[in-house]
Amino acid sequence: MDLEKNFLDVTNLIRSIQRAEGNPDCFRGAQGYCDQLDCAWRPYCLEKPQHVPYDTHKDE
Question: Could you give the C-alpha distances from 50 to 4, 32, 47, in angstroms and in order?
Answer without folding.
Answer: 13, 16, 9
